[in-house]
């Protein structure tokens, strides 16, 4: 079964009231949509891919490009992360030090810190991941207007395979998980300021905009 893509996040309740018309071309930006008023990201307790406690709001003084996905995603997530890998590689070393690409899992039952770290290493060791309790992950998705609908399935068989050291299989229910695939831009002050569609990540728009995003929103 193909991965089901959700409706655009801009249809989520409250989104239209926060986001103006597309601001392409502003200050050297070709794409993306800016929030009228930056949204403070709540300090929800999470765990990073090294097993260390952190929060959704923690920025480490860098501009964050935040994507919600999961390690067993069969199509959208790996393709998007490959696009982010490409975008990240277009930056200079100095620019990279000012940006953090971050995956927030929507499947925390499977995506332990180690699973996330191993998965992200397939793209770039500099990418980071966040996991947590299902309730906290749902709250994080809601706070950033991300669709997250889990499949109605028992994952125990897949969890057992993983505990035995085998590569986790992707079942039809896993592939049917519905989650938002847009990219959130969060400034170093922990404010959600801009969103890029998955298409803009893939078509090179983000590649073009990243240097201007760093200049406009800071990070360092």
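-> sequence recovered:
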């Amino acid at each position: 079964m193909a991965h089901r893509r959700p409706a655009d996040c801009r249809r989520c309740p409250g989104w239209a009231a926060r986001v103006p018309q597309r601001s392409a071309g502003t200050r050297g930006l070709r794409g993306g949509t800016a929030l009228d008023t930056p949204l403070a990201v709540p300090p929800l307790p999470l765990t990073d891919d090294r097993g260390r406690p952190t929060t959704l709001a923690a920025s480490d003084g860098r501009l964050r490009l935040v994507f919600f996905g999961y390690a067993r995603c069969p199509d959208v997530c790996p393709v998007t992360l490959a696009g982010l890998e490409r975008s990240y590689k277009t930056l200079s070393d100095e620019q990279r030090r000012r940006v953090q690409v971050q995956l927030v899992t929507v499947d925390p039952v499977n995506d332990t810190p180690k699973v996330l770290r191993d998965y992200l290493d397939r793209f770039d060791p500099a990418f980071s991941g966040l996991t947590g309790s299902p309730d906290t992950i749902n709250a994080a998705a809601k706070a950033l207007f991300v669709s997250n609908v889990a499949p109605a399935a028992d994952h125990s068989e897949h969890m057992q395979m993983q505990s035995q050291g085998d590569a986790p299989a992707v079942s039809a229910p896993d592939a049917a998980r519905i989650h938002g695939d847009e990219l959130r831009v969060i400034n170093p002050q922990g404010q959600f300021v801009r969103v890029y569609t998955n298409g803009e990540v893939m078509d090179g728009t983000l590649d073009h905009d990243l240097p201007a995003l760093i200049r406009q929103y800071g990070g360092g």
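The two ends are 43 Å apart (CA to CA).
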